[in-house]
Please model this.
Amino acid sequence: MNIPLPMFVVVPLVAAFVLPAFGRRLKPLATLIANLVTLFLLVLAVASVGTPAVYEVGGWSIPLGINMVLDGLSSLLLLAISVVSAAAMLFSARYMEQYTAKPKYLSLFLLMVAGMNGVVLSGDIFNLYVFLEIASIASYALVGFGCEHEELEASFKYMVLGSIASAFILFGVALVYANTGSLNMAYIADAIGRMGTNVGLTLALSLFIAGFGLKAALVPFHAWLPDAHPSAPAPISAMLSGVLIKALGVYALARLIFNLFGVSVALGWLLVGLGLASMIAGGLLAIGQWDFKRLLAYSSISQIGYVILGLGLGALLMAQNANPAWAALAILGGLFHLANHAVYKSLLFLTSGSVELATGTREMRKMGGLGDRMPVTRAACAVASASIAGVPPFPGFWSKLILVIAAVQAGFYWIAVAIVAVAVCTLIMYLKVHRYVFLGELPPDLQTVRENKGSILFAMAGLTCVCALMGLLVLVPSLRSSVLDPAVSVLTDGVQSSTHLMSP
Amino acid sequence: MAYTLCFLLFMIGLYCAVVKKNMVKIVLGIMIMEYAVNLFLIMLGYFHDGVAPIIDRSEFDAQTQTVTAQFLNSSVDPLPQALVLTSIVISLGSLALLISICIRTYEKYGTFDITEIRRLRG
Model:
């Protein structure tokens, strides 16, 4: 089936412009429309799996006009974005009743989805920058949506660092255009392949790594994330941690390094170093947190480290001309961990939102014994925690196992040890969550707490099912060859992956 | 030389955004960075004595549907100009949001000094 690619961007964009016009009386209708849009995008994303496509906007042929490219990596990211956004939108239907101006919230949400879909589909680097800015500006506004002291402060911090990152990225785009004379990814890859790198391109690459590293919250660029993600409303935290840092940061970085500039040993080590630093620093900082959402935010930094480590290991092995199967295995581990993290971290943020809505606090020391009162939330949190900590047979176990096997086969035993050590660290932090939130004595002021109802439960239950079944993606060969393997081969093909798009 | 000055402007903006304590000055620093990038983009396409990239009827060969080589060699590159228009619109959007967040924060805290606005740890 041939999917018209602009639908992924146009449908949420149009809905985002229409929804703010809905007044207070039409609020249920606005909620319904927004949910239908995210469900429609989910159906489109599922239908588009396994059908690579190219769309030329306005009929202009490729080096001249704007084009959208759907390949394996894009469809993996599209799937993750649409699953998480459908669940978060369903969750917000009830959760966002406590805020005013719900239609404006729905509009910003859809704007963010449109921006992310645009980033993963874009075929030239300037449009990637434009869509990245659409998604970023919507997310700055959403972080500050509550307009309270902490939210405004976090939003300002996030916006300042995000704008600096955007300026870096635009400077990088300008330098690439100056040195290659093209903005189209396929033509840039071809030009860099022919003439090699020079000073300008190296400067551009370092600007890209700093810019996208800031967007992906890699250590040492992570300072904004632990403030911004907990301050946002819970469904938005789920979107930010679940997919935004991946679509804007990890995806863009992987696309540029693997498909445009080409891998090298130095770049591989740089990615491995960034990944290890994020894994360890995020993991250690998370254990000491007492704010539920802040702990989850630090743990996001740690888990993003796994993804970057997998990609970096793959890049390193490719650059060293080692066995290509090992490189493919490392990249498979990284990408599978990316998909897993999108699902279980957004589920964890949704459960934290459910707990916060029921108890009115995020401080874990003030909670306890909620397990009996909120059985569904507890079950969802247990599945997601088991998955993130790597308990077999949950999917987080398989992705970490793949990374460990790849590291051992390549001879980097100390990396395998680090992966296992951080997994233990993760287990400790989630045991702490369960100990203080769901087990123990019920404090006197929380005696009347009840489980949330309606769409909140449906969203959590749906995402829990997806989370429990994610392991099938890598265990069932037919699913793996249709979803994960095309994504891996896009990265292992390196700079050759897009040259077929060039007009003869 | 001109490129070095442009890079210097970018660095001044970065310095201002990172070091200054006043929220409005931070916003100004970010804007200086974005203008430096816009300036860089414009300079990429510009060269001395270049003409505007608008095709005249005399420079267009209707039979071969091509433009004369003399026009191609004397006109400036129009693509960076289109990019700059887009990027100015984007920076306008983010400037509006930044300033409105500054104003809301001032209403809450009564100060623009970020060292006094520290409810969040870390």
